[in-house]
Structures are given as C-alpha cells and as structure tokens.
Amino acid sequence: MSKLIQCSHLIHFFGRCFRNRYVDDEQNDFVPTFHSVKVFHNLGMLPGVVCQLVERWQTEFESILASAVDVDRLTQRVRSRQAGSAGGPVAAGPGRASLPNVGSQAAAFYVAIWTSLDGIMDKLERLTYHCRLLGVTLLKKRESSVSCSTIVRLSESIEPHPSLAELLLHELVTNWHGPDKVALRNTIILLFASTNLETLQSNSPETLSDEEHMVSCERIAELEAQLRVNKGFLGWAAGRLSERLLKISEQSPQVKEALDCEYPKLLKLVIDLGRRVRQTQLHGSWNDSSCPTVGVLEADVVPACLLEAVKPFETAYLSKSLSRLFDQVSMAFSTSHSSVGLDAQELDGIVQSAGNELAYATVHYDLLCKVSRNISKMVALFATKVESLVAVGPDANQVMNPQTISQQNNINLVNLLCSFGTQLGWTCTRRLRNLPVMQSARSEHITSPLEAIFATLETRLNSMCISILQPLLQSISDVIEELMSTMHGEDFVCCQDEDVKPSCSLYMKQLQDFVSRARKQYLSGLSLPPSTDRAASSVSKTGCFSCGEVALQSSVLPYLTRWIDMFLHNISLVRPVSEVGRIRLATDCVEFELAVSPLLSFTTEGALVSFAPEACMKLRAFRPVLLADSDQILRAYMQQKTEPTLNVAQLPPSLVCQHLFSRAPDEIRSPHDTAGWSTTRYISWVLARSDESERLTFLRNGLAAYAHEVQIRQQRQYPAMYLVLRDFLQHFVKQPLKTEVPHKPDGLTPQPSEIACT
C-alpha cells in the first residue's frame, strides 16, 4: 500500500516537472525531468507511466476541445457576460441555449468562438511541448557524456549506457506481441515523431543469432516505417480538431458561418501555432552537435497536418469569396444608371472589393494564389458584362456621317475597360507590395498572384478593347485604301505651273482630310493616359492599357503596316509618270506619314517611326528611289553596296522592280496588265504573299511575255528600260528569261533578230 502511495506521488511529481519546464524553459535544464523518468525506470514502471501520461494528455486535449467548441456552452457564456455587464440576472438552463441570429448576441457569439479557438491553440502548444519534452528526455543518455546515440535495439555488452528510449525499444522488440505492447508501440511512435526524429538506425548487436537478428531487423524496420508516416502529437491533435470543427459546423449554422466566412482567421491561428511549435528549441543538457535537434526548422513552413485540419473550410471560403466578387460586378452593372457602363463610384466599389479579398488572404501564400485566381475570374466576368453592352451594326461602323450614339457608347466602354484594369492593377500592387508573404513562394508556384492577375488583365481586357475598336478601324481602313486607289486616276505626267508651289496630290489631300475628320469625330472621346510618373510606371507592369488612346495605338498598329505597304505598291504602279510626277509622289510619301500620325499619337510628332519603325523606314527609303535615275537604282543592287542617296536594303526588290516597270514606255506593259488583272487585284495578291521569289517570278514572266511579243513583231529596237528590267530581274531570279537578249560589245541596243530563244 505504501508503495502505491509513493508511485502516485511520483506520477504527480513527474507531471509537475513537465509543467514547470514549459514555464521555465529559458534554463534549458533537463535534470529534474530526467531524474523523474529514471525513477520510474528503476521501479520497472516506465512503459506504463509513459503510456498513461500520453493518454492523459490526449484525454485532456479532447476534453478541452469538447468544452471549448460547444454551442450550448458558448451561448451560455455569451448570455452570462451580457447579463453580468447589464447588471441583470444570469439566464441559465438548457432552454436558454439557442442563440438569436441577429443583434449583438450574434456578434458576441462569434467573439466567443474565436476566443475559444485561440485558447485551444494555446493548450495544444503546451501539450505538444510536453510530448516533445518527454521524447527528448527519453533520448537523453543516462551518463553525463556529451555523446548522443540514435534509437536502436542494444544489448548491455554493446552499449553500456543506453538511453531510456533505447531500453524501451529493447523491451518492445523483445516482447513484441505482449498484451500491452500495442499501446506502448503507438505511444513510442507518437513521442519520437513529435521530436522530429528523421530515421531509426538498425545497428543490431553481434551477440544475436541469425534468426533473432532477422526478426529484430524486421521489427525495427516496421517501427521506422510507422515513424515516417506518423505526424506526432501535433498531427493527432490536428485530426481531432478537424473532426470536432466539422461536426460542430454541421450542427450549428452560426459556427459554420463563422468558420466559412472567416477562414483566413482560422488559418492564421493554425499558422501561428505551427510557427510557435517549430520555433521552440529543446536543447537538453548536452552541447554536442550530434545530438538530436528538435524544432530547429524553417519557421515559415507550416506543418501539413495543421493545414489539412482546416482544409475543409477553405473550399467554402473560396466559394463565398468568388460569390462576393461576382455579386459586386453583377450588382454594379444591374443598378448602373449609365447606359454605357459604370460610373466612377461603382467602378471603385468593384476594385476595392477585389483589394479587400486580397488583403484577407495575405495570411498564407497558397490562399493568396487561390484568391488571385478568383479575382482573375472576376475580371473575366467584367469583360463579359462589358461585351454585352457593345453596340454593333451599321451605326457603330459608319464613317460618313457624324458620330452616332452607338459609336460614342463603344468609345466609353473602351475607356471603362482601361480605367478598370489600371485601377485594379494599382490596388493589387499597393496591397501586396513588399509583404513578407510574397517572399515565401515555393518552386511549385510558377506565377505569383500579381503576375496571374496582370496576365488576365492583359489577355481579357486588352483583347476586349481591340475587338471593340476593330469594326470602326476596319471602316476607316476601307476608306483609306479606297482613297489611295484613286491616285491612278490622277495625272502624273503634265508639268506643274511654275507659279504654283509644289504640293501633294489631290488624293493625298482627301486622305489627310478624312483621317483628321475621323480622328476628331469618332476617336476624340478616348481617355488620355495619367499624367503622374507613378501611373506611367505602373502601366507597363500591369500589362493593361492605361487609357483609351493606348488601346487605339495598339489596335491601329496592324492596319498601319498594311496601309504603308498598300501605299508603296500603289505609288510604285502609277503610270505613266514623268519626272515631275515622281517628285509629286515623293512629296506624297512625306505627306502620307503626316496623314496617318493623328491616329497614332496625341502628344508628339513623328509617331510613325516609333510605333512601326520597320514600315516607316521602308516608306522613307522608297522616296529617294522615286527621285533616282534607273541606272543608279540598278547599280545599287548589282554592286551589292548602298548608294550615297539610296538605302535599297530596306526595300523588297519586287517593289522597286514594279516602279521600274512604271518608268518603261507604254509598249512594256506592267505584268499585272499583261495578266489581265486590275491594280486592286494585283496589290491584294502581292500583300497576300510574303515570298519575294514568287513576286519576282511573276514580274519576270511579265517581262518575258513582252520579249516574246517583240520577237513575234520582229521589232528592230528595244527600249533602254528593257535592259534595266532584264538585268534587275536576272540578278534576283536565277533562271534565265524564256527569251534572252544578248549583250552587244559596243553597248548598242540589240536588234530583235539577235535574240536567242531558249
């Protein structure tokens, strides 16, 4: 009887040692705890006491969990506090356990829930510490040696001073199938998994027989396997916490709403718990680096068991978060008093809603990535809502009459998209800039939350702006191309009066007037970029058009290249053309660059070379070709070096060859005339083919057809321009012409009878 009383006192003393160690951890002295454990070992009671102690901790946690997360007790606590603060009687009894869903009681109930959960986390931290402390204590050597051994099955002949853990394992492996060994095995695995011990070495004693050696290795391997998958006391408690929260959320709508709607708060509780647990260091009384280090891990890596415990509530939170974002967009468009989208206040409400969702999710990087995907979905919904408001039809595309309401509506929608994308990009950047959570990205995250949002802004909003402007720009392009084709009806042969100052052609004046009118009537309502430097720097980072003017510039760019190519092909095909006519065409090249500039830039001149440098250089390089002699043009290609005034490297050879045909006499018809094509059809054919050899082959066949006609007519002389064209084409087309004209040694033009047919 006295022995039982002594054991009872020892157990209570043992428990007090662990509690005192948590309060006074700074001393890092394991002597009281270790001596307490050694006393139980000397009495032969260590396995049972260890199991009872761990079971007591588990029972204590389950009891605290059941009482802390209980609707009746939480409700009673709220009513007691409210009655006490009001000075009235305290309501009690089962009949008072229901909680109204309105008023201050609901808010007080939510406060009570989070207070209870916070207390659970504190208690779980203490119990986890006790469990880890016990595990490290069992691993400590019984001697004062600074060395520390791993968990192995040892015999006294091999290890004269084994740790208590090794002795426990020795007893466990020796009597593997005992009635109380299952509980002991589970307890040991739980303790050692709580100490973050990674491996169990299996250095078996040499004194064992082969059969005993094989059996011991198998049992040690089984323990190793169980240790690797066991999550320790913290993992066990996290599982119980998850089960309890799921059960109580199914029973109480108030608890479910609190956990679902405020999931980031719950996630922050478990993250803080994991950080405190992992930052706690248990050094013991040794100083050697070979000792098992406990808790020295990266603090920002949250134990997976804690994240899994609250995972069921994440799906509900993300769903509610997406619903809040969608509802904000849908409500803004449904209640808007404007027929062309949203006003500034409604737009600001959507942006702020997205910013708030990001701010709530900054507790963890994974949650932030998932919320950013919700914001990307909201951006897609916004673009869809705007798309439903886009006006289509003749009223939206006409360019002959003043601006219609449909055209004004589309311009306002472009401004709305640009404003929304810019504000959302600024808000997201401001909310997430320099936050520590942004530095915790792991390798599996390919794109950051900001990058994902910016990519959606660029793909959805920019493409929507371009699609809105495209029909109107297509109508403008059709008129521009039609005006350029009218140059073939003008006279480029007659000399200009000496008293008249040289100017551009009539078609160019009409083109300039039309572009200027289209800019003022149909595109003047586009928004301008922000004037601040901060805005200018943010636009490039977000990828979204900063304003309607930037959207216009990006939309016009594909048309711009086509307009320049079409203009160059048109002026290269103008015939007949005199030297004065070529001077007018050279002037038109300069005027054309000025004519399209209003569509490109609203602040600076010379915008063409900035937005389309390659096409602009081609336009500028063709102007000297118009003013150069034919022989000079030929030498520039034949000698493979640039003439002082010619930069033919910027020009496709087929374009220059077309112009050389226009300098030829009427008897050398243009190749497209020989084929029976109109100028419009030929230009369309050329623009549809980027293969320069195919274009040159077409021109070569046209010249060969002329040579064949000369042979049939038995013409005695050829125009000098024929030799220029022949040499030019032979330089690029390797196959000889169907009818070759031999060179004369005296430089005279060959006679038709001297033509050799191949």
Give a short account of the largest sheet. 2 strands, antiparallel
Q: How much of the polypeptide forms β-strand, as a percent range?
A: under 5%
User: How many angstroms does the end-to-end distance come to?
Assistant: 129 Å
Structural class assignment:
mainly alpha
InterPro entries: Cog5, COG5_helical
Organism: Clonorchis sinensis (Chinese liver fluke)
Protein name: Conserved oligomeric Golgi complex subunit 5
Pfam family, one: COG5_C
Write structural notes for this entry.
Residues 36-272 form the Conserved oligomeric Golgi complex subunit 5 helical domain. InterPro entries: Cog5, COG5_helical. This is Conserved oligomeric Golgi complex subunit 5. By secondary structure, this protein is an all-alpha fold. Among the domains are: 44-237, no CATH class; 327-480, no CATH class; 653-758, no CATH class. The chain has 29 helices and two strands. It has helices spanning 2-23, 31-42, 46-68, 71-86, 104-139, 164-174, 181-194, 210-229, 232-251, 253-261, 263-279, 304-335, 344-360, 365-387, 394-397, 405-432, 449-485, 506-522, 533-542, 548-572, 579-596, 607-611, 613-627, 630-638, 653-663, 671-674, 679-687, 692-713, 720-732, and strands at residues 739-740, 756-757. The protein has a two-stranded antiparallel ribbon. The radius of gyration is 43 Å and the shape is elongated.
